[in-house]
């Protein structure tokens, strides 16, 4: 601090950059503000919501997601449903991704080989009227920004309580009106896929061929369809794919996947398609003083490349632990919606 500044009683000049108040954009009409925000990736909304109460209101408004839809700026959003012990309702989480701040993709890798955190986490979503735990065995289907749950155990299949829908824009579950409950089977080249949970805890993939009404059982694993290709994970620790036939001799191993951890034999694994990539969720128990009290839910994002008619290669974009839960917590669903 200079003697001149001290003598005059003035504050010395600061080297900090001037703070720019976010008032300029808020002087625009609300429609223009929504249009501007709709062109910004949802990954930045958590930060924008901290700018001011007005921004928080905009980023959480239903009008913003309607604008994103009209401007064709929708993005895939991953939802995870968990059943916590001694709780009457299911909990819902969404995968909050950290925006990629890398400007130079050719940046040299650090010599440190330790795995750094991706910054991606599962954050709980406050869902109004979330279905009770009795719905944990229900089928769930994503259609655009809505998730439909069909209760298989309902005594009355014609009941309005048989089908419920989660609107991810306003985070609210509600029953589907009877006149709106019209279902059409969607299939992949004449086949419908379904994951099954066996009594022993093993997962199998059921394939129903619509043309000849035959059924195939594909090992023990979990399935998803990405760009008209069928992918499954087997409890033996192998990822397989198929372009047409689903029988065992038609399945081929996904190549690559360097860096992806090995899963335990009884690990609960979920595959989800999101934005043309395969997202893998799995759990891993955390030892504590000789006993397992908690488990970590891990997530990996894998990009897929068809290098020939016979080879699909997978590249692990990132993987990280995204949530810690009690060991008795049940992983119910992992599904992607478009918002």
From TrEMBL:
The record's CDD domains line, in alphabetical order, gives:
F-box_AtAFR-like (cd22152)
The UniProt record lists the F-box domain at 28-68
Superkingdom classification of source? Eukaryota
Q: Could you tell me the gene encoding this protein? A: BnaC03g72940D
List the protein's name.
BnaC03g72940D protein
Any Pfam family from its record, for instance, is: Kelch_FKB95
């Amino acid at each position: 601090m200079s003697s001149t500044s001290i003598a005059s009683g003035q504050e010395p000049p600061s080297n900090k950059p001037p703070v720019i108040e976010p008032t300029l954009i808020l002087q625009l009409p609300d429609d223009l503000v929504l249009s501007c925000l709709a062109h910004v990736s949802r990954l930045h909304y958590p930060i924008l919501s901290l700018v001011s109460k007005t921004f928080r209101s905009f980023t959480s408004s239903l009008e913003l997601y309607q604008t994103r839809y009209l401007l064709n700026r929708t993005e895939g959003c991953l939802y995870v449903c968990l059943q916590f012990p001694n709780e009457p309702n299911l909990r819902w989480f969404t995968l909050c991704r950290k925006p990629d701040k890398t400007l130079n993709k050719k940046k040299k890798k650090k010599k440190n080989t330790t795995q750094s955190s991706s910054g991606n986490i599962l954050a709980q979503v406050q869902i109004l009227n979330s279905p009770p735990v009795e719905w944990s065995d229900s089928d769930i289907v994503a259609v655009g920004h809505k998730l439909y749950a069909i209760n298989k155990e309902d005594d009355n299949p014609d009941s309005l309580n048989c089908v419920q829908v989660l609107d991810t824009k306003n985070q609210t579950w509600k029953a589907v009106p009877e006149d709106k409950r019209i279902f059409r089977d969607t299939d992949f080249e004449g086949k419908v896929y379904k994951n099954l949970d066996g009594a022993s805890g093993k997962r199998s993939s059921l394939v129903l061929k619509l043309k000849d009404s035959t059924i195939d059982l594909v090992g023990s694993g979990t399935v998803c369809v990405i760009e008209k290709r069928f992918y499954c994970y087997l409890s033996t620790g192998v990822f397989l794919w198929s372009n047409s036939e689903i029988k065992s001799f038609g399945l081929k191993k996904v190549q690559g996947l360097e860096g992806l951890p090995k899963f335990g034999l009884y690990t609960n694994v979920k595959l989800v398609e999101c934005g043309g990539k395969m997202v893998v969720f799995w759990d891993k128990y955390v030892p504590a003083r000789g006993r397992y009290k908690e488990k970590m839910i891990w997530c990996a994002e894998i990009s897929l490349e068809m290098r020939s008619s016979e080879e699909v290669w997978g590249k692990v974009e990132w993987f990280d632990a995204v949530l810690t839960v009690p060991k008795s917590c049940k992983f119910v669903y992992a599904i992607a919606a478009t918002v």
